[in-house]
Write a structure and sequence with these properties.
Oligomer: single chain
CATH topology: Spore Coat Polysaccharide Biosynthesis Protein SpsA, Chain A
Helix content: 25-40%
Order of helices and strands: HEHEHEHEEHEEEEEEHHEEH
Distance between the termini: 32 Å
CATH superfamily: Spore Coat Polysaccharide Biosynthesis Protein SpsA, Chain A
Number of strands: 13
CATH architecture: Alpha-Beta Complex
Length: 315
């Protein structure tokens, strides 16, 4: 094999590596600011920095940021110097008019269309199996390694996955949270993701104040933290469902097209299955400003244990 042939083969292999899609276009209304780019690490690292670092060492080949266009310059200023030469990076904007298919958006609509629409906006830049995460959640190294393993070996047009966390690892001491509670079948595959709202934790008891049953949840309940593994076939599937969503709920000013809506249709009408990947990784995130000190402490603890270097991108 001559050197030119080796370069061509290497490029083909790199293109086949899975992509990590980071959802960073949310409005963070409960946080009161752009928590996606708030600094939590000692060398000005955001939570995203740790996710990207874990993704690179797990074997992802590209990072795609879903952002609002007005934040593009700020994102590039922060991440391009860190990631240049380490991994391919792309940016996608979640425009309100994207993929409407001729639907007339209400003039007073300002809220993004939701997480499934954000994923759909990446259709033109992702052609390989990919994972989806939130920008403001810390997922842990184990979850990225297991996601890459699934995406490389098992992901297909009819086989997706979700990384599942124990509910007790995902609660906030500073207010209520919303979580997607996972229902499973006898084989451990996902059967449903029910969005439970206003979940609080007090005196060892988890309570949901959303009018649904059950009111109390077991602390070991498996929940979705929006870490999904998809085949690119999800794009055309989501596009069709989005048109249906718009016709039914598009006039509601705060309606959202969530990933679990697509997942539910895929499992029950699309003939697909979604595997639940359990992880031993710890999870933490920032829903409220009051969560920030605990996040900084958690990161400092991981640094003290040498899970991460003190400066992720210094070398």
């Amino acid at each position: 094999m001559n050197p030119d042939e080796f370069i061509i083969i290497s490029h083909k292999i790199n293109r086949m590596k899975p992509t990590l899609l980071i959802l960073a276009a949310g409005m963070a209304s409960r946080y009161g600011g752009m928590k996606q780019i708030e600094v939590f690490g000692p060398d000005n690292e955001t939570i995203m920095d740790y996710s990207i670092y874990d993704a690179i060492r797990a074997g992802f080949g590209k990072i795609v940021f879903i952002i609002r266009e007005e934040f593009a310059e700020k994102f590039k200023e922060i991440f391009e110097p860190k990631l240049k030469g380490r991994i391919e990076v792309d940016y996608v904007y979640q425009h309100l008019d994207a993929y409407l298919g001729g639907y007339n958006r209400p003039d007073d609509r300002t809220k993004p269309w939701g997480t499934a629409h954000a994923v759909l906006c990446a259709k033109e830049v992702i052609n390989e199996p990919f994972a989806v995460i939130n920008a403001d959640d810390f997922y842990g190294r184990d979850s990225f390694e297991k996601a890459v393993d699934f995406l490389n070996k098992d992901c297909s047009e009819k086989h997706y996955a979700i990384v599942g966390y124990q509910l007790k690892q995902t609660l906030s001491e500073h207010g209520t949270v919303n979580r997607g509670v996972c229902g499973t079948d006898a084989e451990g595959h996902l059967q449903s993701v029910v969005e439970r709202l206003n979940i609080s934790y007090k005196d060892g008891e988890v309570k949901c104040d959303d009018g649904l049953m059950p009111v109390h949840l077991d602390v070991n309940t498996i929940v979705s933290m929006n870490f999904w593994c998809f085949h690119p076939s999800i794009f055309s599937y989501s596009e069709n469902l989005f048109q249906q969503f718009l016709s039914e709920r598009g006039q509601e000013p705060k309606s959202e097209f969530f990933i679990p809506i697509v997942a539910d249709q895929f499992m029950h009408e699309g003939g697909g299955k979604i595997e639940i990947i359990p992880t031993s990784a710890i999870w933490f995130g920032v829903t409220y400003k009051e969560d920030a000190p605990a996040v900084r402490k958690a990161i400092n603890d991981l640094l003290a244990q040498a899970v991460y270097p003190s400066g992720l991108w210094r070398n």
